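Assess this today:

___
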Amino acid sequence: MGLSRHEITKDVLQQYVEAALSTAGGVAAICFDAARRVTSELGAFGTEVFEIREARRRAHEDDTTNPDGP
């Protein structure tokens, strides 16, 4: 005895849903990874900004503590 028409339809729908969910999961993983990488790059940029500000502050302090220059 073969599969009934309803069972075949159920199996096809199940495969469609599984394929759609797998694709959605893959897309979500790509989006989450991209968001993580963007956050990492923004954090690195923030670190650079803080380092530049600190270097500027130290240079200004050196300039004010030694008015005769180098």
Notes: The radius of gyration is 30 Å. The chain has one helix and no strands.
